[in-house]
Automatic annotation (TrEMBL):
<keyword id="KW-1003">Cell membrane</keyword>
<keyword id="KW-0812">Transmembrane</keyword>
<dbReference type="GO" id="GO:0022857">
    <property type="term" value="F:transmembrane transporter activity"/>
</dbReference>
<feature type="transmembrane region" description="Helical">
    <location>
        <begin position="383"/>
        <end position="406"/>
    </location>
</feature>
<protein>
    <submittedName>
        <fullName>ABC transporter permease</fullName>
    </submittedName>
</protein>
<dbReference type="InterPro" id="IPR025857">
    <property type="entry name" value="MacB_PCD"/>
</dbReference>
<dbReference type="GO" id="GO:0005886">
    <property type="term" value="C:plasma membrane"/>
</dbReference>
<feature type="transmembrane region" description="Helical">
    <location>
        <begin position="44"/>
        <end position="65"/>
    </location>
</feature>
<keyword id="KW-0472">Membrane</keyword>
<dbReference type="Pfam" id="PF12704">
    <property type="entry name" value="MacB_PCD"/>
</dbReference>
<feature type="domain" description="ABC3 transporter permease C-terminal">
    <location>
        <begin position="303"/>
        <end position="416"/>
    </location>
</feature>
<comment type="similarity">
    <text>Belongs to the ABC-4 integral membrane protein family.</text>
</comment>
<keyword id="KW-1133">Transmembrane helix</keyword>
<dbReference type="InterPro" id="IPR003838">
    <property type="entry name" value="ABC3_permease_C"/>
</dbReference>
<dbReference type="Pfam" id="PF02687">
    <property type="entry name" value="FtsX"/>
</dbReference>
<feature type="domain" description="MacB-like periplasmic core">
    <location>
        <begin position="43"/>
        <end position="241"/>
    </location>
</feature>
<feature type="transmembrane region" description="Helical">
    <location>
        <begin position="300"/>
        <end position="325"/>
    </location>
</feature>
Length: 422
């Protein structure tokens, strides 16, 4: 009799457990889809935050990878092909104003792998030597303090200039110490030099120099754009050679891969008897330089992408919370029919997760299109890592689920009686 009673209680317990409501996966998916499609406009606006966040995430990472690739090629093509030689003057530099020989350009250019080379130094001007477009006191021209650089013909060629007008001076001008000058486009605008057809001149103090070239841009030595560049022999005739504290330097443009080899032998080529007069500065290791720059870009862009994702998550959370408040009656009815609190939680998480995943897919597509379009416009090679494309929809899904946690918890706390009274 006792055994029979215990058995009936166990059966009652099992029957009671069987009567508890359950939410099957199929029902969950159908209810979530119905909740999303019931208000399509609101669902689209809710997913828009994730679209923008994930799209920015993909675009930022893709553009970072693409620009990093361009940085690689830029460093390989420019930084790795530049060698600088500084005149130290040896142990007693005060007794040797300029250690570079007169034919320094030709000596270095004989080395295999050298494209162009030239010697230059800043000219020390007096306080009255302002740069004007007219002689002092004529036409009311205002002078400005501008650097004047003495350079051999090879310097401008090694700098790889882009000329907007005219030409650079050559060995003829240097040999005859001609009073000619090459200036940057910005300086030309400030001085009012708009055309070279009238053979305009610039005045350094009361000395006139005919402008034969205007440089729009240079690949190396960007400071030349803000300077008046005159032939080396002309500067020596007027102002003398380099002075203490402003010693001459040499700029060497090499073929790709030859810079370090040239750096090891250029001092001997300049002066076999006294190579110690020169300090050779080889190009930096491009790998470490690239790593530093790309790391900075990655950190900056990742922060921007994270901010966009947070904004998208806040948008989903806000819209989902409003939806919970509007659907209080529906939630109360479901609870009255037997739905448990966790069923409501899972349903709202599924809805927010679906919106996040949909936004992630659309955002991934838009981000990829943005990267490709930017690369086409800039004539670059688009670079997008497959991991980024595969992870972006997952990021959208996780963003949607995280954003829906609080609204789903609020929905599960609604009591059926209170909800039905509203």
């Amino acid at each position: 009799m006792r055994t029979s009673l215990i058995g009936r209680r166990r059966d009652a317990g099992r029957n009671s457990g069987a009567d508890r409501s359950r939410l099957a996966l199929r029902d969950l998916l159908s209810e979530s889809a119905a909740g999303v499609l019931q208000r399509p406009a609101r669902s689209a606006l809710t997913a828009l935050g994730t679209v923008l966040g994930v799209g920015t995430f993909v675009a930022v990472l893709g553009l970072t990878a693409t620009t990093s690739s361009q940085i690689d090629s830029r460093f390989n093509a420019l930084t790795a092909t530049e060698v600088t030689v500084e005149d130290t003057g040896g142990a007693q530099p005060e007794f040797l104003a300029n250690a570079f020989p007169a034919d320094a350009d030709r000596r270095v250019e004989r080395l295999h792998g050298v494209r162009r080379a030239g010697v230059y130094w800043p000219v020390r001007l007096g306080p009255e030597d302002l740069v004007r477009s007219a002689p002092p006191g004529v036409g009311g021209a205002q002078g400005e303090r501008t650097a004047v650089v003495a350079a051999s013909p090879g310097v401008l060629d090694a700098a790889d200039p882009v000329l907007s007008q005219g030409r650079t001076f050559d060995a003829y001008h240097d040999r005859r110490a001609e009073s000619v000058a090459v200036i940057g486009a910005g300086l030309a605008d400030r001085l009012g030099v708009t055309t070279l057809e009238t053979a305009p001149a610039v005045f350094v103090g009361d000395r006139a120099f005919t402008v034969i070239g205007i440089v729009a841009d240079v690949e190396r030595r960007a400071d030349l754009l803000q300077s008046v560049v005159v032939p080396r022999t002309t500067a020596e005739r007027i102002w003398g050679g380099p002075r203490s504290g402003e010693r001459a330097k040499m700029l060497i443009a090499t073929e790709l891969g030859a810079a370090r080899q040239i750096a090891s032998g250029v001092a001997l080529a300049l002066d076999p008897a006294h190579p110690e007069y020169f300090k050779v500065v080889p190009p930096p290791d491009p790998r470490s330089l690239r790593a530093t720059v790309t790391s900075d870009l990655d950190q900056l862009f990742m922060l921007l992408a994270a901010i966009c994702l947070v904004i998208g998550a806040v948008g989903i959370a806000n819209t989902t919370l409003v939806a919970v408040l509007e659907r209080t009656g529906e939630i109360g009815l479901r609870r009255a029919l037997g739905a448990r609190g966790r069923h409501i939680t899972v349903q709202f998480l599924a809805e927010s997760g679906a919106l996040g995943a949909l936004g992630g897919l659309v955002g991934t597509s838009l981000g990829t299109v943005t990267v490709v379009a930017m690369a086409v416009v800039r004539d670059w090679t688009p670079v997008i890592h497959p991991v980024t494309v595969l992870a972006a929809p997952v990021v959208g899904l996780v963003t949607g689920v995280v954003a829906g946690l609080y609204p789903a918890w609020r929905a599960s706390r609604i009591q059926p009686a209170e909800a039905l009274r509203r």
